[in-house]
Write a structure and sequence with these properties.
Order of helices and strands of chain B: EEEEEEEEEE
Number of helices of chain A: 14
Shape of chain A: globular
Helix content of chain B: under 10%
Largest interface: A-B, 48 and 47 residues
Largest sheet of chain A: 9 strands, mixed
Number of strands of chain A: 11
Strand order of the largest sheet of chain A: 3-2-4-7-1-8-11-10-9
Strand content of chain A: 15-25%
Oligomer: heterodimer
Strand order of the largest sheet of chain B: 6-7-8-10-9
Radius of gyration of chain A: 20 Å
């Protein structure tokens, strides 16, 4: 079973430096953590960044060249917010097939400020362009609609959402890679400006520069290196939706119709997690911690249910009882989540894997989940992308 | 709306009566919105390889799936109708055809007028004005029956 030998990150922040410099920093940290010389790496998989020109489109090769060409095979993956996991999936598959011995997976980004907006030019056949031109429908507006459903259907309150931020801010205090490391109160969140009702500014994650890297290898190399008891990858899910996808997904203007083909038993997000549990032969009751994509505070609550950590509509109960905070039954986002990091698209899914790895090794100083044995990640990206990675030790 | 108003996008809705224009697959009857391109469209039902579609007027009324508003001006290519920016509401409405369609909310209505599960109906209003005149768009308007109070 593929092992994670090393993980490394460049701290998240906003400096406007080259994404390559962040990526090399994270890559070298991961290689050092693994005790693996760069010369041993025979596969490099990069997570693409779409805002940094051609070099970003071929990120795998860009990082390989920056580290010093070593003749390794290369691949680059793009899956929106799931990019890092898809890159890891690509690397893992080649290792499992015996076509690579040691793989380095890297994602890095440097990101513009403010609302994420599409590239310039008119594109009347692109839903990601049309949702702005015809509707003024921003990313936070989608997050807000999901949050509103929680309020009207389950009785969630803006205070509940604020408590997610409070919890995650507390978790992030002990995370040296987090961009935001300070306590946040419910009053702070509710006192921040409303961006899209019911979400306030502090309910919504920022965008950041950042980089994360993972070194993985198969059993043979692990044995030769003399590593005992590494973190192992039990599953990587990167499934697409099943028709009809009846939950409104960003950046679309509508859903599929269930008029002719009936709706699916599981929603797309539920199916992402389900595929990971199935591959691993593990159930949600076995999970020690979860790193989920809190693009907004309310979305963390949706994810808990999508991961079947509780029943639909019950996430607020767990939050209110302290179950998802460190010390609780099922800590969620012990890293501090996007609330403390902001989003660096190609790196984020790898950052989730880094955190779970540190947790399973007992190296998450100041934010350690006691007895962590099994961790799961989850995220979703535009246009049918999503991922869930299950790790154990 | 003036007499010279034209849709901000062609073929997606009618003004008189106000209705969304969808496409129905001639093979499996699945409905799609936005409507499929005139040429080279394929049915997205994985069990159907249909390539012929009929246009169909979608139901004008549905139930609110969710709603929100824009308190800050969205970035381009959004074009504000005027200056300064006025916040506006947005709603996702589920139609009897089994799909949910996004739209701005009709002028004069905000999040306080909406609730998940409430009824909404389609109207057509001005989105912005450009060199060719007023450009229109579909919007969702809360249905308030005579004698009902909207919840605060």
């Amino acid at each position: 079973m593929t092992a994670i030998l090393g993980v490394g990150m460049h701290p998240w922040g906003k400096w406007g430096r080259s994404f390559v410099s962040y990526g090399v920093h994270a890559a070298r940290a991961a290689l050092a953590d693994a005790g693996v010389p760069w010369g041993d790496v025979d596969l490099v998989v990069g997570g693409e960044t779409v805002r940094n020109g051609y070099g970003g489109y071929v990120a795998g090769a860009t990082f390989a060249q920056a580290l010093g060409w070593n003749g390794a095979r290369v691949a680059t993956a793009y899956a929106a917010c799931a990019t890092g996991a898809q890159a890891l999936d690509t690397a893992r598959a080649r290792i499992m097939a015996g076509l690579a011995e040691v793989a380095l997976v890297v994602g890095a980004d440097t990101t513009p400020k403010g609302f994420l907006a599409p590239n310039a030019g008119e594109r009347w056949d692109d839903p990601d362009w049309l949702r702005f031109r015809l509707l003024g429908m921003t990313n936070p507006a989608y997050f807000a609609m999901y949050a509103r459903r929680r309020m009207d259907l389950y009785g969630a309150t803006q205070e509940d959402f604020a408590q997610v931020k409070v919890k995650n801010a507390r978790h992030g205090l002990a995370n040296p890679n987090a961009r935001y490391r300070r306590e946040v109160s419910v009053a702070d969140v509710l006192g921040s400006a409303v961006v899209s009702d019911p979400l306030h500014l502090l309910d919504i994650c920022a965008t950041s520069d950042g980089a994360a890297a993972v070194v993985i290898a198969g059993d043979e190399y692990v044995r030769r290196l003399g590593v005992s008891d590494p973190v192992r990858i039990r599953a990587i899910s990167t499934v697409t939706p099943t028709f009809p996808n009846t939950v409104l997904d960003m950046p679309l203007l509508s859903t599929d119709s269930s008029s002719a083909v009936p709706g699916t038993a599981r929603t797309f997000k539920e199916s992402i997690a389900h595929a990971a549990y199935e591959e691993a032969g593990i159930g949600p009751e076995d999970v020690s911690l979860a790193e989920v994509y809190d693009l907004s505070t309310a979305l963390e609550l949706d994810w808990m249910e999508d991961l079947a950590l509780c029943r639909r509509g019950e996430a607020e109960s767990l939050l209110r009882a302290g179950e998802t905070a460190l010390g609780g039954r099922i800590p969620v986002n012990p890293s501090g989540g996007l609330a403390c990091f902001g989003e660096a698209v190609p790196a984020q899914a790898l950052a989730q894997v880094c955190e779970v790895t540190w947790q399973l090794r007992g190296q998450a100083e100041g934010r350690q989940v006691d007895g962590a044995r099994i961790g799961i990640t989850a995220n979703q990206g535009l246009f049918g992308h999503g991922s869930s990675v299950l790790l154990s030790r | 709306m003036s007499e010279t108003a034209t849709p901000a996008i062609e073929g997606w809705f009618t003004t008189d009566p106000p209705a969304l224009t969808g496409s129905r697959c001639a093979s499996c009857a699945t409905v799609f919105f936005p409507p499929v391109p005139v040429e080279g469209a394929f049915c997205r039902n994985p069990g159907c390889d249909g390539e012929d579609f009929e246009t169909t007027a979608l139901s004008r009324r549905g139930t609110v799936w969710s709603y929100t508003d824009a308190q800050y001006q969205p970035p381009p290519p959004y074009r504000p109708p005027g200056d300064p920016f006025e916040p506006f509401a947005l709603a996702a409405v589920e139609l009897p055809e089994g799909l949910v369609v996004l739209g701005q909310v009709a002028l004069g209505y905000g999040v306080a007028d909406l609730r998940v599960g409430a009824e909404a109906e389609l109207v057509v209003e001005t989105l912005y004005a450009d060199d060719s005149g007023e450009r229109t768009i579909w919007r969702w308007k809360p249905v308030v029956e005579m004698g009902q109070e909207t919840e605060q």
